[in-house]
Specification:
This protein is α+β, with helices and mostly antiparallel strands. 36% of the residues lie in helices and 8% in strands. The strands form 2 sheets. A 4-stranded mixed beta sheet has the order 4-3-6-7, sandwiched between helices. The protein has a 3-stranded antiparallel beta sheet with strand order 2-1-5, with no helix packed on it.
């Protein structure tokens, strides 16, 4: 991925692998928080914040889903970038289906928002981005922190009354999110971008060991943290919904499909069928992004036709205790 160096766009700077051929994901850079404290710089005010997202990206998809489940659509506006990312980075192509213009600055490329926030910025230009209209700057570009801000400081601004981050479960939710991050959420990337056979095999082994484990957990409980839908489930979902159509083939994570896992596949279908979630999944954007953007992995940029998992079939999770919050009932 090309990046900004001292505010200048560089096409010869990339996210890298280490000496063992293992994929190294760079840390995100903007890490401020929306908080309810009286002296907080960023207050939870409706209409103040704007989300930049991609329907292709699993990290941005987290923020989009939480925004929808909490009913923050009117409080936090949103723009969508093009799924294809070329050497100029994420771009705005409003003429393309399900993409938008940049409604804040009228920018052509997302990197213009980064340099508007910091004209000497060095780092990757990533989605999601949470923008503050009042101070005209980036608040945060770390997906886990954005969804926690939405579910904490911004929850009372939402319209559904849904609590995805209950105070009494936060330590457990945080632990599960951490447990699934490296082997699963980032694990598919570690497998796909590995630069050595051993690094690839290690990542794939850890990935499927973790999938096996959570499939067993979900045999006895409806969600990752007991009988309540939480942020942890959303974090898992955005990887699993892409798995069979992208990661299984493109990143060579082909030991099993998610549809081979009874509980994980049921969990994926249940979340897909929550109000507004199916509309957030644009598989055409997802497949176009991965198969056409990563030319080193797919030089001819051919996009597979299948396999088209049946996300709308009955999920079969209703016999387990718990269920979606009342605010998410149709």
């Amino acid at each position: 991925m090309h990046m900004l160096v001292d505010g200048e766009w560089r096409e010869d700077a990339y996210e890298s692998t280490n000496d063992d051929g293992e994929f190294d994901r760079q840390e995100t850079s903007f890490r401020d928080w929306i908080a309810t404290d009286d002296d907080a710089r960023f207050q939870p005010e409706p209409g103040r914040y704007h989300l930049y997202a991609s329907r292709a990206c699993p990290w941005a998809h987290r923020a989009m889903i939480v925004r929808r489940l909490l009913g923050l659509e009117d409080a936090v506006s949103m723009d969508i970038v093009d799924p294809y990312r070329d050497t100029d980075g994420w771009q705005f192509t409003p003429e393309k289906d399900d993409c938008t213009p940049d409604s804040i600055m009228g920018a052509d490329y997302l990197r213009e928002l980064y340099t508007a926030a910091d004209d000497s910025f060095t780092g990757r230009v990533t989605v999601p981005v949470l923008w503050d209209r009042e101070e005209e700057t980036i608040v945060n570009n770390e997906s886990e922190e954005i969804i926690k801000m939405f579910a904490d400081a911004m929850v009372d601004v939402g319209t559904t009354g849904v609590d995805l981050y209950p105070a009494e479960l936060r330590s457990e939710i945080d632990a599960v999110i951490e447990d699934i991050y490296n082997p699963i959420n980032n694990g598919v990337y570690r497998a796909g971008f590995a630069a050595s056979q051993s690094a690839h095999e290690n990542a794939v082994t850890e990935l499927f060991d973790a999938l096996d484990h959570w499939n067993e957990v979900l045999a006895d409980q409806r969600y990752l943290v007991g009988d309540r839908l939480t942020l942890a489930d959303v974090c898992l979902f955005t990887t699993l919904v892409r798995f069979d159509e992208v990661y299984h083939t493109h990143f060579k994570c082909n030991v099993r499909h998610i549809t081979d896992y009874e509980q994980l596949w049921g969990h994926t279908r249940e979340l897909y069928q929550l109000p507004g979630v199916a509309e957030s999944v644009n598989m055409a954007h997802i497949k176009e992004h991965y198969y056409t953007t990563h030319g080193d992995l797919n030089p001819r940029r051919l996009v597979p036709v299948g396999p088209d998992p049946a996300f709308t079939e009955s999920h079969g999770r209703g016999d387990l205790p718990g269920g979606p919050p009342a605010g998410l009932s149709d």
